[in-house]
Amino acid sequence: MVRQIRIYDTTLRDGTQAEDINLTPEDKIKIARKLDGLGVHYIEGGWPGSSPTDTAFFREIRNYELRNAVVAAFGSTHHPRAAADADPQLQALADSGAGAVTIFGKTWDIHATQALKVPLERNLEIIRDSVAWLKPRVGELFFDAEHFFDGFKANPDYAKAALRAAFEAGADALVLCDTNGGALPHEVRDIMRAVTAEMPEAAFGIHAHNDCELAVANSVAAVRTGAVQVQGTINGYGERCGNANLCSIVPLLQLKLGGEYECLPEGKLPLLTLTASYVSEVVNVQLFNRQPFVGISAFAHKGGVHVSAVARNSSLYEHMDPELVGNRQRILLSELAGRSNIVSLAGRYGFHLDKDEPVVKGLMAELKQKASLGYDYAAAEASVELLLFRKLARRGVRDFFKLLQFNVIEQKHSDAFEPLAEATVMIEVEGVVEHTAATGQGPVNALDNALKKALRAFYPSVDEMQLVDFKVRVLSSVGKKGTASRVRVLIESTDGGAPWVTVGVSHDIIEASWQALMDSVVYKLYKDEQQQRGGTD
Going edge to edge, which strands form the sheet with 466-475? Predict the structure, then answer.
C-alpha cells in the first residue's frame, strides 16, 4: 500500500532566515503560486503580525485560489506571563485566515528553565493551553516540538510529556524538530521508534536542519519510521547551513524507495527542476549547479569513457532518468572529452556521425587546441552549439554580421570622478556598413550598448537580450603569468526564456569579452531564426 507523505514547505518562513534572502510580499505570492502548482500540501507563509511583509502576504494570498496547497501560519505558544485567551500572538494566528497553523513549543527541559525561565510543569501548561485555545479556531493545527531530539537525549520522559500535552490538547500532528541540526540518522530512527511506539494514535512529522549535512537523510529516516509529514524548503534554504532540501527529499521518497511513498500528485514531479530554478531566481540566489536531482550538473557527463557508456545505456552512469524530475542529461565538451562526446552531442541536434569521420576528428583536434588556450566549453553550452553547427555547416548559423572594427576608450580624470567608458563599433550586415558609438558602465557595457545599437535596425530582437552574469578568471597556467595572463570570460544572457552561456579567451580582457558577447548575440539571432522557421531543421 502506498503511503502519502504530506509535504510542508517552509521556504517563505524558515527559508527567509538565510542571511542572503529577503523577500517582498510580491515575491512570496509568486513563490506560493509556483509551489501550489508543484503540488505541495502546505505552504507556510510566515509569522502573522511579526513584520509588515508577513502581514501583507496573509492579506494578499486570500485573493488567489490555490488548487493543491493549504496556506499555513506560524507562531509560538503563548507568552509565559499571560494566558492563552489574552495572548495577541495566538489571536493573530487565529485571525490570519490561514487554513493551517503551526506553533512551536519547548520540549528540551533546559530551554523551559533557561530560555523561558519557567518551571517544567508550567511549560507543559503553556503547550497544553495554547493548543487547546487555538484548535477550535483554526482548520488544522500542528505542534512543532522545538529541539526535540536534543531534548529527548537529555530527558526523554520530559520530551515525551511535552508531546503528550500537545496531543491531548488537540494537535493534529506532532512535528519533531532537529532545531540545532546535530542529530544523526540512527538517532532519529531510534527516537522516532520510541515515540511512535508509545503514542501509536498520534501523527508525526519531521523538521530537520542541515548543520551536519544530514537534514535530508534524517528526514528520510523519520519517514521510514513513521513520520507522515515532512517540513523543508526548496533548495534547502534556511538559517545557518539551511533546512532539509525538499528537492532531494521528494524524489528520494517517491522514486528511490520502491513506490512505497507518494509526495506529490500524479504528474507533478517533473516540475521539480523548473520550480527549484524559479524559486532561486525570485530569491536572487544562484541555483547550486551540483545540487542533486535538480542542478544542471546532476546529470552532466564530461569524461569520454562515461559518455561512451551512457550513449549505450544511460543507467551505466546515471542513477535515474533525469526527466522524472524535469532535468536533462548533458554531454560536455572539454579537454577530457573523447570523440564519443562529439558524436553524442551532434546526435542530440540531429546529426548522426561516426567516431571515425574526419569532421569528428577535426572537431576533436580543434576542441583540444582551444582547451589548451583556456576555453571552457563545459560551462558554455551556447558556444559549444555554435562551434558544432559551424563545423557541420548547420543551416541557420551564419555570419549575421561581420566586425570591421571596434574601439574602447576608458577615461578617468581624478579620484573624485567615476571613470567614463565609450565604445565605437563598425560592423557590416548584408553589405551595409554601420558605425555607432555608445557609453556604458564600464568598457564591456559600453561595447554591448554600441553593438546592439549597430544591430538594432537589422535585428530589433537584440533589445530583448540582457546580460545576467559576467565571470572573469585568470588562466595563470596558460602562457604568461600575472597581469599578462590570459583570461577567460563567461557571459550568461537571457531574453526572458532559458539563459545561455558563451565563452571568450584572450590575454586582453576586452577581446575575451567581445568573443563571448559576439557569440551570445549570434546565438540569440540563431534562436530567433529557428523559431521563425518553426523549430530546428
Answer: 466-475, 486-494, 500-506
Cell of 359: 569532421
CA–CA dist 412, 420 (Å, integer): 6
Cα–Cα distance for residue pair 49/89, rounded to 1 Å: 8
- Residue 28: count other Cβ atoms within 10 Å of its Cβ: 25
Asked whether 441 and 514 are in contact (CB, 8 A), the reply is no
pLDDT at 49: 85
> Would you tell me how many other CB atoms lie within 10 Å of the CB of residue 485?
16
Write phi, then psi, for 443 (nearest 5 degrees): -65, -35
pTM of the model: 0.78
Q: Which residue ranges make up each domain of the chain?
A: 3-262, 300-373, 402-532
Whole-angstrom Cα distance, residue 529 to residue 525?
A: 6
- Distance between CA 30 and CA 292 in Å, rounded? 24
Residue 163: what residue type?
L
In contact, 522 and 491? CB cutoff 8 Å: no
- Report residues of the chain scoring pLDDT below 70: 303-304, 307, 333-338, 349, 393-397, 476-483, 534-537
For domain 402-532, give its CATH number from 3.40.50.10860, 3.40.120.10, 3.30.1330.40, 3.30.160.270. Answer: 3.30.160.270
- CATH code of 3-262, in short, is 3.20.20.70
Residue 257: alpha-carbon gap to chain centroid: 24
The x, y and z cell numbers of residue 5, run together, are: 507523505
Residue-wise pLDDT for 77-104, tens only, equals 999 999 999 999 999 999 999 999 999 9
Q: Do the two domains 3-262 and 402-532 of this chain adopt the same fold?
A: no
- 471 Cβ neighbours under 8 A, 6+ residues apart: 489, 490, 491
Residues 43 and 32: beta-carbon distance below 8 Å: yes
Residue 425 identity: V
Contact 119, 92 (CB under 8 A): no
What is the DSSP track for 497-528? Answer: SS-EEEEEEESSHHHHHHHHHHHHHHHHHHHH
Torsion angle, CA of 272/273/275/276, rounded to 10 degrees?
Answer: 110
Alpha-carbon distance values, 259 to 133, 139, 190 (Å): 39, 30, 24
Position 470, amino acid: F
Q: Is the dihedral of CA 509, 515, 519, 522 positive or negative?
A: positive
C-alpha cell at 517: 558577447
Neighbours of 193 (CB within 10 A): 12
Residues 6 or more apart whose CB falls under 8 angstroms from that of 34 comprise 275, 278, 279
Task: Please state at what angle helix 339-348 crosses helix 381-391, rounded to 10 degrees.
Answer: 90
Segment 292-339, tens digit of pLDDT:
999 988 998 876 677 677 777 888 889 999 999 999 887 776 655 667
Q: Can you name the residues that pair with 470 across neighbouring β-strands?
A: 491
Give the model's pLDDT for residue 536. Answer: 44
